[in-house]
# Entry
Amino acid sequence: MHMQIQPILAALKHHKLATVLIAMEIALACAVLCNACLLITNRLSAMHINSGVDESSLGFIALQGFDPAAARDLDARVAAGLAGIPGVESVHLINSVPFGMQAGAFGITLDQAGKQFRGVPEIYLGDPGTPQALGLKLVAGRMPEAGDYQPIAQGYLPASSNVLVTRALAGHLWPGENPLGKQFWTGENQFRVIGVVAHLAVPQYDEEGERGAEWTVFVPALPPASLLAGTFLIRAHPQDLDRVMVAAKAAIARIAPDAVLDHEWSDTLPALRTKFFRTDRAMAGLLVGVIVALLGVTAFGIVGLASFWVAQRRKQIGIRRALGATRADILRYFQTENFLIVTFGIVAGVVMAIGINLVLMKFFEVPRLPLWYLPVGVVALWLLGQLAVLAPALRAAAVPPVVATRSV
# Structure
């Protein structure tokens, strides 16, 4: 094979335009393949985010259009009505759920003066029993007790509260330290950590690093509260959940004729997860289609070029066969030629892949392309090139010497 490289390179010099075009097509395929695979991986990873709650047992009901002054009566009426539906295990007031409507994000500091800013976590508000109903997994400290649930006299949050934080947020606020008993502030509101939960995803996952996943705080609260009115968490056995949610939606018109059911956000948590990642699934499917189409076009390009060169070189093939070249020699010649062209394209494609990734990082907050994606893309294109050239190369190797020379 080594002895064939020089003649092959010399032959390629006589077909510069075709060689450059097919190499550039391979370069584009390499660049798109690496970055599209990165985007698909990120989409799939996001779709498997751990919400930290017992999704299969939970549903969410959201009401709109009611008089805020009558929220307390409405909440009590709806909670009692929903709790009476057969199969319902518990009903709680909660401002939102993972994959649900936007709840409340507040900037927090580690000092009361507000100088040690540490980020903007999402705040969940819930009435007594909500953490247990959600199925949160406690990894340190304790769950809120009856005395921890504080009324909200004004504003959106209790003036002072004992709270749960996620392990991710605790690690961000106090790396390497025990978070239990630590305090933080949002404006004048003071919070003290009494427990750490393994996971609790934000309502609207936005991929902003750690915050995008689990910078969340659970604040125990009592109604009335502006962020805790007209939104309900329903817990039921997983086998009963769909039936319970259908019954709950139907019952709202009778229980709360003075409110409007928000159909977009009122659903089971599995259904909310499915709707939330609908765009991600569509994008992943679209990218897979782009990859398949681009690799298909590249493969057809290689097949076409190789077939053209095989037809053009029948005389050369015949002479080589007459001089003693075996079928394996002819096959190896075309495979080596294709390997060199694909390699030229891959070298350019690697540079393009890194460049495209840098552009995506700058304008679309796409993560840096892991370097191991590059050798995977390189091997994939080498295999594609060898498979695409195999049929034309076999046809060339199958030409008998006498037929080849007579065809000239």
The chain is about 50% helix and 15% strand.
